[in-house]
Design brief:
six-stranded mixed sheet; disordered C terminus; binds S-adenosylmethionine
Length: about 200
């Protein structure tokens, strides 16, 4: 069994206390027996590369990430949007979960953090699926929606950024979703909101 403290020193109850697991020990047990063994090697590498970052706790938790990967695969997502990239854990996970001709528009106002994960994303051979935009998210979403071909064209949106704008992101992501109905998913951290269309 891997020593969790070595792999993810900050991945403790601080991140899990909003969930059902009410003890560090139980959370570590779940991570070590169920989550880490299923984690692709390069995601593990990205997680380890992020661990020394002072804000490493911001990264998507690997257990939540695996739920996201499952959703992406279940709906055969091809075109997705991510708001809040940080070092790229959820981005790499999404890029590994969509088909080779899939596309992710990934927006973050801090390119510096993205540069930490970028070499690992390149190593995974999925960089061609990613269009990273170094910007505040709202203006990019508004610009995207000015183009009628983008409206209703996304299968999946993952919002993991500044909470104060979640309602604004929600409104815009609804416009970006697939018109075809039951194939789109909008997932958002912090407010634990998951809407399937
Ligand atoms: C929780 S972290 C994202 C974690 C990421 N999903 C992962 O798996 O590692 C939040 C990110 O949102 C970015 N962010 C915060 N407010 C933003 C805004 N208004 N526009 C764009 N990015 C923003 C921050 O720079 C930070 O990298």
């Amino acid at each position: 069994m891997e020593e969790a403290s070595k792999l993810a020193p900050n991945r403790t109850l601080k991140n899990a206390d909003k969930g059902l697991l009410q003890s560090d020990e139980l959370y570590q047990y779940v991570l070590e027996t169920s989550v880490y063994p299923r984690e692709p090697e390069l995601l593990k590498e990205l997680r380890e590369a992020t661990a020394s970052h002072p804000m490493s706790e911001m990264a998507t938790a690997p257990d939540g990430g695996q739920l996201m990967a499952l959703l992406l695969k279940l709906i055969n997502a091809k075109k997705t949007i991510e708001i809040g990239v940080f070092t790229g854990y959820s981005l790499l996970l999404a890029a590994l979960s969509i088909p080779d001709d899939g596309k992710i528009i990934a927006i973050d106002k801090n390119q510096e953090a993205y540069e930490i994960g970028l070499p690992i994303i390149k190593k995974a051979g999925v960089e061609h699926k990613i269009d990273f935009i170094d910007s505040l998210a709202l203006p990019v979403l508004d610009k995207l929606l000015e183009n009628p071909t983008n409206e209703g064209s996304f299968d999946f949106a993952y919002v993991d950024a500044d909470k104060i704008n979640y309602w604004n992101y929600h409104e815009r992501c609804l416009k970006c979703r697939q018109v075809m109905g039951s194939q789109s998913v909008y997932a958002s951290t912090d407010v634990m909101l998951l809407v399937c269309f």
